[in-house]
Amino acid sequence: MSVSQAYHILFTAGLVWFAILIAVMLIKAIIGPGVTDRILAINMIGTMVICCILILSVLLDENYLTDVALIYAMISYIAVLILATVYIPANPKRKRFGEDVKREVEEGRRYVKEQRAEIRRKMEEEGFKGSTPPDMDGKEL
Amino acid sequence: MLEWILFAVCALLLFAAMVSFTGAVIGAIRFGFVMNSMHAAGIGDTFGILCLVVCLILSIGPGLNMMKLLVILVFLWFNSPVSTHFLIQVEYFTNKELYRFSDRIAGSKTNETASGEEK
Amino acid sequence: MKERFFKWFYGESDPMEHILDCAEVPDESREEWKYEEHEIEREISRRVHTQSVIRAERRGFYAFYLIIAVISCLMLIGVLLFTVSQLPRYGVENPRAKEVIERYVEKGLEETGAVNIVSGMILDYRAFDTLGESHVLFTALLCVMILLRLDEKNKRTRYENYYTVLADPYYDISTDPIMRIAATITLPSIFLFGIYILLNGQISPGGGFSGGAVMGAALIIYAAAFGFTVTDRVFTYRMSRCITFLSLAFYSFAKGYVFFTGANGIPNGVPKGTPGAVLSGGLILPLDIAVGMVVACTMFGFYSLFRRGSIGGE
Fold this sequence. Notes:
The complex is a heterotrimer of chains A (141), B (119) and C (314).
Chain A: H1 3-31, H2 35-59, H3 65-87, H4 94-126
Chain B: H1 2-30, H2 34-60, H3 64-94, H4 102-106
Helix pairs in contact in B: 1-2, 2-3
Chain C: H1 2-9, H2 28-57, H3 61-85, H4 95-112, H5 117-125, H6 127-148, H7 152-159, H8 177-199, H9 208-226, H10 228-234, H11 237-263, H12 284-308
Helix pairs in contact in C: 4-5, 5-6, 6-11, 6-12, 8-9, 9-10, 9-12, 11-12
């Protein structure tokens, strides 16, 4: 078996595996709940198609397929950019729920701080029993 | 003999690229949050494409096509982080239930979803 | 340093706390007030305006124009159908199956001078079809302009009560510094790549359409990254009109000259050059450039029209 035949088999196996990965990613693009899942899936499909084209350009010994791969990379990049410009301003109540979420997170943190202060206060009242070794009961280190 | 060594190195690099792309795809599917799956997709965009392009350069040899492959590599490395940056902004600005699990971590009752459900 | 790290680790400090502070929040109360005041006025003016427009549309010169347009369309359809019925049928006796293909494949290189036979076919043997395709692009841009362009009629009703993207820096992503840096570094290369594809139409796959698409994509990235105010200084409506018209006119006149001399048996003075060089293939290179210009202007025109309703910011 010559080296070129071995390369042929190797690259064909790589192509087949890439095709399987692209099909699996397509299922994710259909299922994924939400906009961002689908855009991410399309971006990954684009990257894997670029890899397929590069392998093909070596397999078939054609030089111009690398130009095609470069165009494809550019098209997928510009697609994600323009979709972002469409989706980011599209929610007219964006300011509202952004502000609401910030407020909720601050309230949650304040609640956690209060709980911790309360627990510490209770431990101070009871004299730190159980949180120190038995021969030092009630005394802090 | 030298050709077979080169072939072995190429096969190893291609196998590494396959493994990284498989990891990226599995990570993109299995994670529950989109931000984590974007982190997994970055593996394919950086390490997978590097291994693949180095394998192809070793099997082609020096010349004009090697420079074209390097141009593609640099272009992809430069533009994938920008795409990820904007995808995360899309996620932040369109997902109403982004903080729904910080409830369990902080142990508070105030982090309800925007529609008022309790978790 | 350790204290700062443990503060972040236990959740007491948030590094993303002040990330939205410098963005101006839109004034919501003022928007609602504008909506209430103009709502009734808008309804009244819209109804009156459309009634008067409808009444004016159905009399006078406009009615005559409609009738003539319908009649001329029907006549054109009849002429084309008659011509198509006179062509030879599908089958093995069709000259397209036997003679034409052999002639293109065997003598394509000598007669056109292009190594890429596909480019030689669409821009030398079948240049009339490519002319029609360029005109189709131009017509598509005109149709989209008719439907989406903002006039005085629909400017008030369409954009007044929504959060306009242009006037609101809170929502506009062209203020993002990452976008600007990425565009500054990659756009010159992308534009050069588009020009490279254009000039290589006769040597390797590429040509006018794909090169024009890449250049249009580069213009779109520029408009999305830096905003429309900067792009309007370069790419105005008048420039878009001039470029498309001059390209199509040059294409028509050049190919008309070649058809005229070819039909009458006179040799035309277009040099063929050596196949494989950039300056080869006769008229293929200038026609590629013309087609590429039309495609780039059309693509950017579509993006601009869909985004804000006008090409040059008028």
